[in-house]
Amino acid sequence: MYKLLCVDLDGTLLNDLKDIDEINIEALKKVYKSGIIVALTTGRLFSSAAVYSEKIGFKFPLICSNGALIIEAGWNKALFKKELSIINCKKIISLLKKFNVTIVFNSSNIVFSDKEGYSVKIFNKLNENLPWDKKIKIVLVSDWDLIFNEYENEILKCIITEDELDKVSEIKKALKEIDGLEVVNSSLNSVEVMTKGVSKGQAVELLAKRYNISKDKIASIGDSENDISMFKASGVSIAMGNSLAYVKEIADYVTETNENKGLAKAIDRYILNN
To answer: Which of 76, 132, 156, 247 is the most buried (most CB within 10 A)?
Structure first.
């Protein structure tokens, strides 16, 4: 039996409306009650991931901002944190201004953006259904230098979302030329930037070490490029049916889509009946 199940959020646990289908909640409860540790792994910031974990009913271990922050079960302690340096934040800003895109950074609980773009709209929509003490804080930025100085050692990730896919590819290529950065797609139209070496895969390895779990006892489920490192850190990997072809090719198994009970079906077939 597996001892650790790592589950991505967007495109995996969540449906296209950014909500959790009841069948997935029940499936994860069964996993938890069987004695398997469930970890939610996401590019999202901690305060956003926590909302979904609490909706399931447990304070699961959380791998946030693509592995830049790991919070242990119960949420009393951070197992790992790796922020973007001020120098690298400024390099990112300098480059992105050339592309005229909306720029978003996040800490563990704040979204910073220079415009009310896609990411801000997503979090505003999520906030509509949350009590005031659970809402994700959003800060619109006019001076990035002030933000970087005020939140030094707190900025974990930058995200760029753009409709033009050729532009996304060009931005990703340019960012990869900056030393000290880890650059990965979280979807076709989104690029995420962390400190070099930070990844979901590294975070899974650190979490497994914390709980003394060997690689062959780890299972992971995801759908995007940022899940590939997690797949490689796991004994078995399962790609969602809505994943891109190259993600499916890397995975050991492929389940149904996030709109067709894919997570619950994968848990029933590959995890609980293993």
So the answer is: 156
